[in-house]
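Lab notebook, bench 4. We co-purified these components, and the gel suggests they stay together. Before we commit to crystallization screens, I want a quick structural picture of the whole thing.
Request: model the full complex, all chains together.
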Amino acid sequence: MIGGGHTGLATSRVLAERSIDHVVLERGEIANSWRHERWDSLRLLTPNAQARLPGYRYEGDDPDGYMTMADVVAFVARYAGATAAPVRAETQVTSVTAAADGGYRVIAGDGEILCRSVVIASGACNAPHVPALRAAVPSTVASFTPFDYRNPAQLPDGGVLVVGASATGAQLADEIRRSGRRVVLSVGEHVRLPRMYRGRDVLWWMEASGVWNQRYDEIDDLVRARRLPSPQLVGTPEHTTLDLNTLSAAGVELVGRVSAIRDGRALFSGGLRNLFALADLKMDRLLDTFDAWARSGACDADVGAIERFEPTRVPAKSPLELDLNSGAIRSIVWATGFRPEYDWLHVPVVDHKGHLRHDGGVIDDAPGLYAIGLPVLRRRKSTFIVGAEDDARDVVAHLKGYLDRASRG
Amino acid sequence: MAEKKTEKKPETKRKNGVNVDALLAAREALKKAPQAARFNWRAACKWQNGTHSRTKVKGFHGLMEEQNHKTEFSFDADHPEIFASEDLGATPVEYVLVGLASCLTAGVAAVAENRGIKLRSVEAKLEGAMDIQGILGIDSDVRNGFDDIKVTFKIDAENASKKDLEALVAQSQKRSAVFDIVANPTNITVVVA
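Here is the predicted assembly.
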């Protein structure tokens, strides 16, 4: 098992249940990414009631609240203890190669491990993804990614351009705006959701209605589904909705997707309005699905009345360009997504876009090699804490079958 | 007023005359052969007189080889009389509106086909607002091109709600070549041979 985050630990617990001898290699401390690669104010966008791992769940007194990063780290660390997971911490994997006998050779820490199977649980967010046009940003403007951003105080005084309006971009635009700075938010494709719907958390609806359980082989355009950005949600005690209307009401200036930076001028798309329409329509379709499920399951009585939300307001005048040399913008936060890193994986199973080629976590090109914890690995909920268990059970079932066949042959 | 064209293949039931099966098959094939997806579209223009020019379109490159339209298409462009010209053709900026309208309309038909929506009629009215102080060089703060383009679709379909039609039009923009060309910056290189 490569990776000692919540997914690696969940899978480890399932392996242990099936008496499959294994070790979990974690490059840092348990829940390393949650400790080091997150900003200060970040909370989970899933409610505590959805903090469930195999044989373990949140048992505090705030099931509707959202964990802080410290809470998440503690939760995952306690889980590792409770499951007695066989973790080797501070053990970075530097190479995985196929061994002659059909197994794998893993070089990690200062040693080598020979094994029959490897599960890659290093996640999809090993590095920030920053567009190539970042190179054209004038040197007078500072750049930050979600990996080095911690709080508004570290930003230079003055205006901030936040690029990307998904979960990270929306949250950071909001927090930076509240610090009193001018914020321009460049909006590309995004997923809009209300925090609360008919009195319940929207993610309760995702789970209860079965949308989150939709399987990867039932999805028409799986490539697209796996690339969907995180929804514009934030976890606050007040359960606030964080959509573009909230942000624009707070004074965040919305502009289109950054298309190019020419002579120090950032050029924005004029197609902003349609991105709003696409996100609004998609949200309404999802809410229709929730309503249909509520009606069919006769739980209409347990939830509030049907609601629909104001369409995303289009700014009266949205600039098509911003002169980054004028001094109006002193820093840029690139909330433009993340990518996995597989430079330690010396088995040819990564495609030309840097993603693992897998079928529901099974890497057909390398028998015995598996992946877990990737977007829509096997279900829409795959990358959420609550999604780890079902995927882990499926992947381990396949792995057990593989080991049994391999040992017979 | 049905949109359905006479079909060549009786077994392909097309609601709007768009051969979506072929497009989906092409999509799959091109995933495996990305070089074949590299197209080059062409136009050759000859000045006629004054602001009147004639542009012809016939050949293009795609799917690894040179291709040709069935016939050569010819487009006359000119300026109107109020611009002290002869008005022998639509203006170049109107051609851009034609491009945008056709691209979005074709997209509406294709997406409708894919979604099983039977179209009865689709009309698009376009307006491009322009302050000609830009092109006349009177005021350098005024851009040459359109300040704003507005497209209004009127769609009548058999089995689609207003939301369905809005989604149709939104998806058409999302996948439209001309929408992208007009809404986003595009590199243009002009050389003198």
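The first strand of chain A starts at residue 24 and ends at 25. Worth comparing against the SEC data before the next meeting. Chain A has two domains: 6-126+340-408, 130-334.
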